[in-house]
Amino acid sequence: MNKVAVITDSTAAIPDSIAREHNLTVVPLNLVWDGESYLDGIEITPVEFYERLVKSDTIPTTSQPSVGMFAKIFKNLIDQGYDILTIVISSKLSGTYQSAIQAAADFPKNRITVIDSLQASMPLTLAVLMTAQAAQRGATLLECTNLAKDLCQRVRILFIVDTLEYLHKGGRIGGAARLIGTALKMKPILELKNGEIDSLENVRTFKKATERVFQIAETELGKQGTIEYLGIATANVPQIVGEFTNMAHQRFHVRNEFVGLISPVIGTHVGPGTVGVAYIPAKKA
Question: Are residues 11 and 133 in the same domain?
């Protein structure tokens, strides 16, 4: 039985140290900004990106990894004797899934599985980390695939954006488009639904939006419900991480948690000041 290597893309924003610890391969997406090209998270870090974004008059464009990049990584891992599970950003938000599918077509079908997560950012991160842990424990490609699909279906994210401007300009606004024209001085609460960005509510202040996010989560999870994996993601807003983490622990039993930055590619579309809370509910016995 072959060991399983898990691959994801840079929108999961998994730091190098954690990727190495979990035997993960992270394939970077691309940014083009003022005529210069950058590999997401490699040639421009999240902190560098947000510091520049708040001062910039321009917004970068983004694109998926090439088929050739995926093919090179696939070949290297197969040559090492691995089976491969690739879990990538929603196909409704990026062409990354199609690049991976095209690359996988040149390899034996039983060696590579590519999953369209219908997620992005922290939900993708949590699903990938839990699947990689299973692979390290010796799970087969089929077992890892079934686990990843289940996690991608169950994970939920609620996020607050400072402005809809970036989603609108980047063309990723999805169901939140109905808020345009009504969201002036409001703090929209958004979610990922069926692989696209959708709106939940429009709240007047960030504080009220934060409270509402946890009320919504509590409605789904129940008071003192159990979260298998909690994720807090910010567009370089470290000062509120502690507040969000404390609110989660006050309301829920949290088994595992991960705090990270939103990747430059995702940040291009959601903008600075964005904060997201992702969670995978624990399965009931």
Answer: yes
Identify whether residues 117 and 147 lie together within a single domain.
yes
Instruction: Report which DSSP code applies to 162.
Output: S
Same domain, 164 and 87: no
CA-CA distance, 153 to 202, in Å (whole number)? Answer: 25
- The number of folded domains in the chain is 2
Whose tokens are 């997401």? That residue is: 40
Burial class (CB in 10 A: 0-12, 13-18, 19+), 167: buried
Spell out the residues 6+ positions from residue 237 whose beta carbon is closer than 8 angstroms to its own: 272, 273, 274, 275
d(CA 215, CA 252): 11
Q: Are residues 110 and 190 in the same domain?
A: no
pLDDT value for 185: 64
Retrieve residue 3's tokens: 């060991």
Q: Specify the pLDDT at position 176.
A: 45
- Note the pTM of the prediction, 2 decimals: 0.92
Pairing type for strands 275-281 and 226-234 reads: antiparallel
DSSP 203: E
113-163 pLDDT, tens per residue? 999 999 999 999 999 999 999 999 999 999 999 999 999 999 999 999 887
Interatomic CA distance for residues 169 and 165, integer angstroms: 6
Residue 211 within a domain: yes
Q: What is the pLDDT of residues 182-239, one digit of tens each?
A: 445 678 899 999 999 888 888 888 899 999 999 999 999 999 999 999 999 999 888 9
Cα-based distances in Å from 45 to 33, 39, 49, 141, 234: 14, 9, 6, 32, 14
Q: Can you tell me whether residue 37 is helix, strand or coil?
A: strand
Residue-number span of the structural domain to which 208 is assigned: 156-281
CA distances from 198 to 70, 115, 272 (A): 30, 22, 19
Residues 148 and 181 occupy one common structural domain? no
Contacts of 210 (CB under 8 A, 6+ apart): 160, 243, 244, 247, 275
Specify whether the CB–CB gap between 167 and 271 falls below 8 A.
yes
